[in-house]
Amino acid sequence: MRTPVRPDGPAFWREVAATPRGGAIATCIQCGTCTSSCPVEAYDPSFNVRRLVARVKLGLREDVLSDEALWACTRCFACVARCPKDVQPGEIVEALRSIALKEHRQGAGPRHAVAFADSVRDNGRISEARVTIESIGLSGLARQGALPVRMALRGKSPSLRRHRLRSISEIRALLEEESP
Amino acid sequence: MKYAYYPGCVALDSCSELDDATRAVAAELGIELVELEEASCCGAGNLQEVDPEGALALNARTLSMAEAVGADLLTVCATCQLYLARASEELKDPRTRERVNARLAKVGKKVEGRVTVKHLVQVLLEDVGPRKLAAHVRRPLGELAVGAFYGCHLLRAPGTKAFENPEHPTSIEHLVTLLGGRPVDYGARTACCGFHVLTVREDLAMKMSGQGLAEAKSAGAQAIATPCPLCHLVLDVYQGKAEKAAGERLDVPILHLSQLVGLAFGIEPAKLGLKRHMVSTKAVVRSLHELEVVKA
Predict the structure, then answer these.
(1) Element (H or E) spanning A32, and its range?
(2) Residue of A120, A122, A151 best to disrupt the B interface, most CBs of B under 10 A
(3) What is the DSSP letter of B164?
(4) Chain B residues in contact with A169 (beta carbon < 8 A)
């Protein structure tokens, strides 16, 4: 099913094509159906998924992996549903984020992904309060203003207590040693 | 009818009213829910980015627990549905299964690939069926105008078998009609709420959800029904901020689909957690009570 990537293609293109979810990148015809379906691009043109694929094809590795816009994708998969060549652009975004995380790239996106994974490793499930605070930081929490208080008044707050699975040792045994 | 029940993280944390409402509806329909109490998080895409093979192994572990129950897996979250169904599809490949089982052997588990992952919407329409559902409706929703908000991952779920047409879904409107309500058509019913960038790009999430809510409101929706607690979180908890992004007063009550079904079944609103919302659901409950008075 996977189209072989041209052996003379840029190394970065071949690297992405070799990932479990990036394989279909070679079939992209740059038609732009993905970008015109993208709700993120409608508000923030710096996230342009067609161009993202083009930049991978051009081998612009550092440019792509250090781009904060990579973390603006909401995983809505409108691009995947509409792509006429089944390139699965949203899955290529996932593959690119994986590579960026392996390289310990910094920023709000990687911070959230790592906080999420850490919560799973520690407790087996997500503690919403903890993941939120670790993702946005105390300054981000301050910017939430009265919202946490209003949530508390409605009994709507996420729990502050730790709920750890009894079988947590199984979860840790199945995950990689530590987050990148 | 029995299911291995997977509430997911958010339905056990900030959206616990979804868990309450789902249990109440299942009890009414005579559905046995065997909760997978030791199941892990589905990964929600984040763990898949950080540790793809580990995320697949965790979901394979959850599926093996459902196999032990001997029932299909029931989810109540669009994102849980995507990542568990995707794992289930991947594990149908014998080579993938062998590789994942080698890892699962470390914790004494094995997955055979026998379980189907189903969201509540699918269970209600396909397993319970319209006739039985309609028979349980004791408090029809009357003229309540309900806008569906499907949630991306119920419709657009790469690597899984589609339950319905992602561009023209009908399941929630069908359910609303069966419950005696009036479905409202609007463009953003298949749109994205922005949940998955809420902590990274709150500005985007607010613009996206603000537009969706404004569209539903201008189409005349008195309430929105969503089959996903993540959509619920953005549309309900953050609605005040979405109003600022949309530049207009919204005040649209957001119901979990289970709550809407429960209301139509005549279950007490308190049992469905209808007060545990940021946007008041009073107007919805009042309109149903008034209707009942008329009926009596």
Answers:
(1) none
(2) A120
(3) S
(4) 107
Residues of chain B with C-beta less than 8 angstroms from the C-beta of A90: 158
- For B9-45, the DSSP string reads SGGGTTTHHHHHHHHHHHHHHT-EEEE-TT-----TT
Is A51 within 8 Å of A35 (Cβ atoms)? yes
Specify the CATH number for the domain of residue B224: 3.40.50.11810
Q: Is residue B125 part of a domain?
A: no
Note the pLDDT of residue A160: 85
Cα–Cα dist B75/B274, whole Å:
21
Cβ(B206)–Cβ(B245) under 8 Å?
yes
- What CATH code is carried by the domain that includes residue B87? 1.20.1050.140
Whole-prediction pTM:
0.95
- Last-in-domain residue among B120, B138, B158: B120
Q: Does A1 fall in a domain?
A: no
CB < 8 Å from B in window 34-93 of A = 39-40, 43-44, 71-78, 80-81, 88, 90-91
A132 and A59, same structural domain? no
Cβ(B61)–Cβ(B68) below 8 Å: no
Amino acid, single-letter form, for residue B84: L
Whether residue A133 sits in one domain with residue A98:
no
Query: Kind of pairing, strands B32-35 and B2-6?
Result: parallel
What are the pLDDT digits (tens) for B26-65?
A: 999 999 999 999 999 999 999 999 999 999 999 999 999 9
Clarify whether residues B110 and B45 are in a common domain: yes
Q: Is residue A122 part of a domain?
A: yes
